[in-house]
Amino acid sequence: MKDSLKQHFPIYTSSPDLAYFDTGASALKPQVVVDKIREYYSDYGVNIHRGLYEASDRATTEHDTARNIIAQFIHAEPEEIVFTYGTTHGLNMLATSLGQDLKKGDNIVLTAWEHHANLIPWQQIAKKTGAELRFVDIDTDYQIDIKDAKKKIDSNTKIVSFGHVSNTLGSLAPANELIGLAKHVHAITIIDAAQSIVHLKTDVKKLDVDFLVFSGHKLYGPTGIGVLYGKKEKLEQLSPVSFGGDMILDVSYNSAEWHDVPYRFEPGTPNIAGAIGLGAAVAFVQSIGLDEIIAREDKLTNYLINQLSSLLNVQIIGSSDPPKHHGVVSINIAGIHTHDIAEILNRHNVAIRVGSHCAMPLMKKLGLPGGTARFSIGMYTDEKDVDTAMTALKQAIDLFTQIM
Amino acid sequence: MDDILYKDMILDLYKHPLNRKNLESFTTEKKSHNPTCGDLVTMQVLFDDDGKVKDIGHQGEGCAISQAALSLITDKVKGLTKEEIVAISEEDMLSMLGIPISHARMKCALLGWNTLKSMMNEL
């Protein structure tokens, strides 16, 4: 394909026949990101901050530049960007810190589609404090039921935290409405943007959300790096939960004073290469253009859903309306366990993810103990990949329907 | 179609599993879970007065490989003693299946065997 974006991704040089449908778990890495990380390790791979020599100064500058690029990408200020190790780390930080102020009678509102990363940290806090967990239900079209949200969010709600896009269903949460309901009762708002950051434009000012977290590796960046965005005044109210070097202003044997935000949340030597690599990934996404990426992905999602729907026995676990899917299409095939689907697809170099997608409560709710077979796409996914997947799926269906 | 992994025997056992049932009375019962693919199995064993397996049942959800393996192992142990069951090796289990099992599918292939073995060790 002439205008393919595959050319930017070196994995297609070593595996030209790969049909990759697991971007939702981790996006492939473009050459510019690989080069940027290699450059750090080979040319100036030293520690940041206070190194009064050239290599350290360069590392610090590159690290700061990455923070600036990411801030601009989500319409935030650089001091509102905390580097973490990923979405899970960011959500654990928030739950641990905000949980200190919770008590019995308070409630935390999540949704029925949360990834375990935005569920288990809150379960732990609820157990410790006696706060109640509530889950906004989904409707028959696999979308957030806003009427239910109005019932669940009340004057005792202290925190509303939700996955912006479901990693299983591909549905988009009505963020503005949920945040509006939360603000009405003065609850803290958190968006888990792990899935949405790569498929949608993220504007934290327009969302007016207090905190938003995402991972670098789902955004064409390296693993082990993520971002916790917080409104400056909210970050300043947040107590650090990890302690050590670099996060302090002044220390005596018995006490310490915290550094400014965001540094007070970044103790120890951070993932310097990861942050610089993520900066390069975001710059790369911007060079292609998020509008262009979204247009491609929308077209491809439409094609994928149409093709999948044409197969007998295939049930889409998600909206039947293609525009309501954001990078993710889950299916179930009657009579074939998801693991067997993945096995047969792999023989055709088609990489999908099957199982519960770290959303076990949702799978139980939907009555799918074997989970779903999930196709998740990226900027590089094309119609040929879909066609390869369809051939493989047809083979799986034939194989499993021959003996009845 | 002749498939190296999904042989007719495997697919047949998947569609028509052996010993897939709930025992009304049993000596021991165990639930086991393979989180990789969501396989969930409950096995029940009833021993007779001579300490031999009189009946065995399994229920749950799983892929073709795990379900076929469960059918095979449950049929194999009928009439065996606890010691004879424990003596069944991983290789024995894999050779009963008679298909090449990749690293990723090993947990599926051995789910029933593992569950049964730990049940016996807990007796």
From TrEMBL, chain A:
<dbReference type="InterPro" id="IPR016454">
    <property type="entry name" value="Cysteine_dSase"/>
</dbReference>
<dbReference type="InterPro" id="IPR015424">
    <property type="entry name" value="PyrdxlP-dep_Trfase"/>
</dbReference>
<dbReference type="GO" id="GO:0031071">
    <property type="term" value="F:cysteine desulfurase activity"/>
</dbReference>
<comment type="function">
    <text>Catalyzes the removal of elemental sulfur and selenium atoms from L-cysteine, L-cystine, L-selenocysteine, and L-selenocystine to produce L-alanine.</text>
</comment>
<dbReference type="InterPro" id="IPR020578">
    <property type="entry name" value="Aminotrans_V_PyrdxlP_BS"/>
</dbReference>
<keyword id="KW-0663">Pyridoxal phosphate</keyword>
<dbReference type="InterPro" id="IPR010970">
    <property type="entry name" value="Cys_dSase_SufS"/>
</dbReference>
<dbReference type="Pfam" id="PF00266">
    <property type="entry name" value="Aminotran_5"/>
</dbReference>
<dbReference type="InterPro" id="IPR015421">
    <property type="entry name" value="PyrdxlP-dep_Trfase_major"/>
</dbReference>
<dbReference type="InterPro" id="IPR015422">
    <property type="entry name" value="PyrdxlP-dep_Trfase_small"/>
</dbReference>
<keyword id="KW-0808">Transferase</keyword>
<dbReference type="InterPro" id="IPR000192">
    <property type="entry name" value="Aminotrans_V_dom"/>
</dbReference>
<protein>
    <recommendedName>
        <fullName>Cysteine desulfurase</fullName>
        <ecNumber>2.8.1.7</ecNumber>
    </recommendedName>
</protein>
<dbReference type="GO" id="GO:0006534">
    <property type="term" value="P:cysteine metabolic process"/>
</dbReference>
<feature type="domain" description="Aminotransferase class V">
    <location>
        <begin position="20"/>
        <end position="387"/>
    </location>
</feature>
<dbReference type="GO" id="GO:0030170">
    <property type="term" value="F:pyridoxal phosphate binding"/>
</dbReference>
<comment type="similarity">
    <text>Belongs to the class-V pyridoxal-phosphate-dependent aminotransferase family. Csd subfamily.</text>
</comment>
UniProtKB/TrEMBL annotation, chain B:
<dbReference type="GO" id="GO:0016226">
    <property type="term" value="P:iron-sulfur cluster assembly"/>
</dbReference>
<protein>
    <submittedName>
        <fullName>Fe-S cluster protein</fullName>
    </submittedName>
</protein>
<dbReference type="GO" id="GO:0005506">
    <property type="term" value="F:iron ion binding"/>
</dbReference>
<dbReference type="Pfam" id="PF01592">
    <property type="entry name" value="NifU_N"/>
</dbReference>
<dbReference type="GO" id="GO:0051536">
    <property type="term" value="F:iron-sulfur cluster binding"/>
</dbReference>
<dbReference type="InterPro" id="IPR002871">
    <property type="entry name" value="NIF_FeS_clus_asmbl_NifU_N"/>
</dbReference>
<feature type="domain" description="NIF system FeS cluster assembly NifU N-terminal">
    <location>
        <begin position="6"/>
        <end position="118"/>
    </location>
</feature>
